[in-house]
Amino acid sequence: MQRLSLKDTALVESHRTEARLNALTDTANRLTASALPVARSASTASIGTQNVRVFQERESNNTIATANNIGGILFTGDRQTRTVAIQGNASRFNQDFFRFLPGNQATSAIELKTSTPGISFSVYKDANFNRQVDAGELVASGSSINLEAVRDQELYVAVRSSSLTARNYSVDLIAKPGVGNESEPNNLSSQAKDVGNILARRSYQGVIGGRTSITQDPNDWFKFNVTSTRQVSISFSDRNFDNTSRADLFLRRDTTGDGFPNQIIASSRSVPGRPSSHNIQQTLAAGTYFIQASAFQGQVNYNLSFSAN
Ligand SMILES: [Ca+2]
Ligand SMILES: [Ca+2]
Ligand SMILES: [Ca+2]
Ligand SMILES: [Ca+2]
After folding, report:
1. How far is the CA of 18 from the centre of ligand 2 (A)?
2. Which CATH class is domain 180-308?
3. Per residue in 121-145, pLDDT tens?
4. Do 2-177 and 180-308 have matching folds?
């Protein structure tokens, strides 16, 4: 019980943080609009559009607990790609941590890149909200990074330099709004794409079945979790129905603890001659759940979205 209440506290805190960050984003973006000409002249060659704001680091920021807060990158409902140009100074002995949210309801693509030699990145999520890096919290690392992110996923990036002496760097943190994609292989539940904790709406595109045989791509599995009892909505639609393409949708969970989602909680079956359209609404207790999109006939190009209230 103790552990549960701590989690709930962390979640509430996370929501508060999100609200604060979203407010910060809107303020920051409004400020950017007026400050832009100055920012552009002071920034790097990679900055050529209006959708750039410059973020100057502030020491000390050597740990997640002291990370500089960039806030959200995208506006709510934003359809434009936006860049935060981070400018700082680092050495092998002085790394810089930054905190950000994609800041948009839709899934977004996050890119980190730099033209400064010797700079590399590590992206973390602070899954247990303890402001420390724990095992399993590294999301990606490298000298450039591309990842899929969602609005309510707060992320941290560590900028590291291989230089023994302190050097200036410039890093572009780019957020592109849009939907995510399924990730093959995902024909087995053990290969399910993990879309994480669903709070805001999450959308994905994919293809199942096959033109000649549905066995080419029989299933697309996704999994998600909710951290407290929530009304969850899942919708599936066929983007380009060709009169024969059909797919079914199942909401499942593992009740035996072996990892296989044996129990079907809800299902929606396709109808001959009609585009596959499924809406599953279910009140779910805290836990991990699986979605199985299953090919029935032909090839289906689908949209799949999740939300929780
Ligand atoms: Ca620094
Ligand atoms: Ca630092
Ligand atoms: Ca697929
Ligand atoms: Ca598949």
Report:
1. 24
2. mainly beta
3. 999 999 899 999 999 999 999 999 9
4. yes
